[in-house]
Amino acid sequence: MPPEQADIDRAVALLQAGELVAFPTETVYGLAADAANPLAVRRIFAAKGRPADHPLIVHLAGGGCLDRWARDIPASAWELAEAFWPGPLTLILKRAGAVPTAVTGGQDSVGVRVPAHPVALALLRAYAEAGGGLGGMCGLAAPSANRFGRISPTDAAHVREELGNSVSLVLDGGRCQVGIESTILDLTRDDGEPPRLLRPGRVTPEQIAAVIGVLPETATPQADDGAPRVSGSLAAHYAPATPLRLVASARLAGLVDELRQAGRRSAILCHSELPGGVATPAVRKLAADPRGYARALYAALRELDQMAVDLIVVEDVPATRAWAAVADRLRRAAVGAGQKQDPARSRH
Ligand code: TXA
Ligand code: MG
To answer: Which CATH homologous superfamily contains domain 244-347?
Structure first.
């Protein structure tokens, strides 16, 4: 059931009171709090089990309130906002003086975006009309509404599975259309240096270059030491509890067969036609195009994770630019997956 005005009003009242509300965006569901209220923001970290030095993205109803959150905003930020907002692009900018450190994880920058989901926009606009929270800042801090390190929710039911009673209200906006988290672009570098892509997403480096005339640099993944600039940049992330292995298409059938002979149950996530005779009841076939694949990826991983198999075998995706964001999420899922041991690996 899509939320009605009364649900939006209730969400606004909760947020003003410093409570948490989960809401849909076009990418994944977010867990929101008044971004100007440090106590409310701390509740987000507690609900997610997330380390406090991880900065959060501030969601706005439009670019109009950007200068409450950021200072020295470069022309390229306005151009990108014009081109991609509302939409799945987060800009990292120098933070304005009024921004609480709870939101920025102590950094001198702040992440902002305007989400393109009608429920998200209705919530953000109603929130602004009701005064916009502490100091009238009109920003909602919202990480993905999952426990830290786990698969992001793309459906209201996933949020309830992940967070249960620690969230006061879940606004149900149906399935998220993009399905993976926003592209993150760091615009805080010195003049003359290209912006840096911190997380790949639906908005591609080529699309960014078409607007600002410069191709972003791609950040190298960081090690687990110190405060990460992007928690999604930790090697292990977006992970199911079941071990997960990425294998080349040609190796898929052989591996599943070996596992079966060893008495191990596996589930398959693929995007191409499986050769005849692959014997496993647990197969999810996703679209062979990156957008369709991304949209269904996290829900499929959740389903396979609940099948009580020993290993999730994922057919690797093409090594092309169009698949870069999906490939990024699959690699991190493979690193973070599996409180149980990977049975295929332990045999070799
Ligand atoms: O699509 C999305 O971006 C979703 C929806 C809910 O908007 N949100 C999301 O939030 O993915 P989260 O917290 O799961 O991931 C946001 C990432 C974090 O890994 C964080 O480190 C990074 O954005 N981030 C936020 N502020 C930053 C900053 N000032 N500098 C560098 N990275 C930042
Ligand atoms: Mg997240």
So the answer is: Threonylcarbamoyl-AMP synthase, C-terminal domain (3.40.50.11030)
CB distance 302 to 235 below 8 Å:
no
DSSP code per residue over 182-194: PEEEE--SPTTSP
5-218 and 244-347 have identical folds = no
Distance between CA 100 and CA 59 in Å, rounded?
A: 15
- Ion ligand 2 residues within 5 Å by Cβ: 144
Q: How confident is the model over 293-320, as pLDDT tens digits?
A: 999 999 999 999 999 899 999 999 999 9
Distance, CA 191 to ligand 2 centroid (Å)?
Answer: 30
Give the pLDDT confidence of 269-283 residue by residue, as tens digits: 999 988 776 666 689
* Residues lining ligand 1, Cβ inside 6 A: 25, 27-28, 30, 54-57, 88, 90, 92, 104, 107, 109-111, 115, 142-144, 181-182, 184, 198, 229-232
Q: Which ligand is nearest to the CA of 70?
A: 1
Mutation pick for ligand 1 pocket among 69, 181, 188 (CB with most ligand atoms within 8 Å): 181
Q: How far is the CA of 181 from the centre of ligand 1 (A)?
A: 8
Residue closest via CA to ligand 1's atom 6 equals 30
CA 289 – CA 325 distance, rounded (Å): 12
Which option is the CATH number for 5-218: 3.40.50.1980, 3.90.870.10, 3.40.630.10, 3.40.50.970?
Answer: 3.90.870.10
In tens, the pLDDT along 189-205 reads 987 899 999 999 999 99
Domain ranges of the chain: 5-218, 244-347
And the tokens for 273?
């036609």
pTM above 0.90, yes or no: yes
Encode 74-84: b = buried (16+ Cβ within 10 Å), e = exposed.
bebbeebbeeb
